[in-house]
């Protein structure tokens, strides 16, 4: 039976359940996200896997506690709770829009799994209150899982991204433009257009090992002490200081979320060599991000860093070939 066939009283109860199913899990989830991100600052499996599953389960139990409705409508209502939590998280200044969009492809399927489990439970459980009891247990289990995750946490994995460009210019000239390059006036392209930091110029104080290179981004400078100076083939450096990796898209003027501190460039290098009368430049960044699941977030961070590389390397190519 559809909502259109219900009595007026049935419709009111249905809409009340629908609103409760969308809002209550979102409120509980927002409180949990706040403590995870702002108090414990642990962006891990409990946050990104546990929270969507629990929200999907609780939402379905609230909306369809008697197991009378189809899975499609139950899933749509549980997905609505994901939209509501996104709005709440932005409203209370926990996260910005871009980060929420990045998390959505991971959260939505997990939310569907939670809804599916609840859909099955409400139909096979002997007790009519089984769904409610399991909901309470799952919500209570989230802080316990968080504590376990924090206590067993390992050091973040060191990743590397390598990007290459071929330049029709002498290697000595390219080397000079690698060490420090002039202003990049071109507007950011691709994924960099959505608030991620991008390089604008680079300068260096001194020469050789121990010199300090400043790669300036729109959000501030990377401070890079030189660790290898093999002119004109290798320039390597550590990263002593770095600016914010992005500017959050948010209704608030300034929003600095904790996870921005968890993405760290550790070191980098430029390797130059000659091939077929041209100069090949390989730019490499070594970085860590203390956010799980590593394999998922690595897809975004690798692409962002690769686009940063290309912005610099293509500019060096343009200046060197001029």
Low-pLDDT runs: none
Topology, number of strands = 7
* Helix-strand sequence: HHHHHEHEEEEEEH
Strand content: 15-25%
How many helices? Answer: 7
Name the overall outline: elongated
Straight-line N-to-C gap: 72 Å
Helix percent reads 40-55%
pLDDT averaged over residues: 92
Report on the biggest sheet.
7 strands, antiparallel
As laid out across the biggest beta sheet, the strand order is 1-7-6-5-4-3-2
Topology (elements, then pairings):
Layout: H1 8-39, H2 45-63, H3 71-91, H4 97-124, H5 130-151, E1 159-167, H6 171-179, E2 199-205, E3 212-217, E4 220-230, E5 234-238, E6 263-275, E7 278-289, H7 294-321
Antiparallel strand pairs: 1-7, 2-3, 3-4, 4-5, 5-6, 6-7
Helix pairs in contact: 1-2, 1-3, 2-3, 2-4, 2-5, 3-4, 6-7
How would you describe this protein?
The protein is of the alpha+beta class and 322 residues long. 49% of the residues lie in helices and 20% in strands. The protein is built from seven helices and seven strands, in the order H-H-H-H-H-E-H-E-E-E-E-E-E-H. Strands 1-7-6-5-4-3-2 form a seven-stranded antiparallel beta sheet, with helices on one face. A hairpin with a 6-residue loop joins strand 2 and strand 3. Helix 3 packs antiparallel against helix 4 and helix 6 crosses helix 7. The chain starts with 7 loop residues before the first helix and ends with a helix.
